[in-house]
Design goal:
Blueprint: H1 2-20, H2 27-32, H3 37-44, H4 60-66, H5 80-95, E1 106-116, E2 119-133, E3 136-145, H6 174-179, H7 197-206, E4 210-222, E5 228-235, E6 243-251, H8 254-265
Antiparallel strand pairs: 1-2, 1-4, 2-3, 4-5, 5-6
Helix pairs in contact: 4-5
């Protein structure tokens, strides 16, 4: 009876596995595909193997990273980008570099489409992981970027100002700046004022003026590897080289990396 139960359980598990495979992939392609970001991290860190790589190969540690790249990035084995990818993979293997979900130096970049005042708009949201309490995290919006958040006046207006003697009339003209053309408002700010696009995003959503309808493009950018920045995107295709794959690799200095992080985290 116990043996029968075990056989039945294995049969059910096998059916479940096959039920999870998208119809456009065969079983081998599905197992090779990197279907989750967590799966990408596990393979990068060596916690999960990819079929087709021989562990006895002396270049195993390098190859397991190379298999994480979008193969269509490279024109040939002599391609300068492929050579850089090899150096990148070798550096990771030799230094045993890991990427962690809890790390603060990776973020999501989402191209959002929405509706603002009856018009279709698009903008970028940068999101990062923030710790809530021990071993618990959440995603937070770190930065918003888009033309609708820049508050650009439609015309140059030299008369859009508060006069030097307005203090003598209890600044009655403050009423005028909110009843005239709304997009002139930044003309009344001091010359060093910088529009905080992220605050504008929160204000528009808070007041019910902006709706996010969907995300058309999503990538995750990683800063954890010294001297490099790389990003991953999802590729849905009928090959072993599919799912979340490295689609950009940039060699940068520490100063460049710091500047880019400061831009995101302000």
């Amino acid at each position: 009876m116990k043996l029968l139960f075990t056989i039945l359980l294995l049969f059910i598990c096998e059916l479940y596995v096959h039920a999870q495979i998208p119809p456009f992939l065969n079983e081998n392609q599905f197992r090779a595909s990197i279907n989750l970001v967590d799966d990408f991290m596990a393979r990068f860190n060596g916690n999960k193997d990819r079929q087709g790589i021989n562990k006895k190969d002396k270049n195993y540690e390098i190859n397991k990273i190379l298999f994480l790249f979008n193969g269509k990035m490279f024109k040939s084995y002599e391609d300068s980008l492929f050579i850089e990818a090899q150096k990148f993979s070798d550096f990771i293997a030799k230094n045993k570099i890991k990427i962690l979900y809890s790390d603060t130096t990776w973020f999501a970049k989402a191209k959002c489409h929405g509706n603002f005042a009856g018009k279709e708009v698009e903008f970028l949201l940068y999101l990062s992981v923030e710790k809530r309490r021990e071993q618990m995290y959440k995603w937070v919006i770190t930065k918003a970027v888009g033309d609708i958040f820049k508050l650009k006046p439609t015309h140059h207006a030299t008369k859009a100002m508060l006069m030097p003697d307005d203090h003598e009339t209890n600044f009655m003209s403050l009423n005028r700046i909110t009843t005239e053309k709304d997009d002139y408002i930044t003309y009344y700010a001091n010359k060093n004022f910088h529009v905080d696009e992220t605050s504008i995003f929160f204000a528009l959503v808070y007041n019910g003026l902006l709706d996010i309808e969907y995300v058309s493009d999503l990538q995750f950018v990683f800063f954890q590897v010294p001297g490099y920045i790389f990003s991953i995107k999802y590729f849905e295709r009928e090959t072993d080289n599919s799912g979340w794959l490295i689609n950009s690799l940039e060699k940068v200095s520490d100063r460049e990396k710091e500047n880019k992080l400061n831009y995101i985290f302000n």
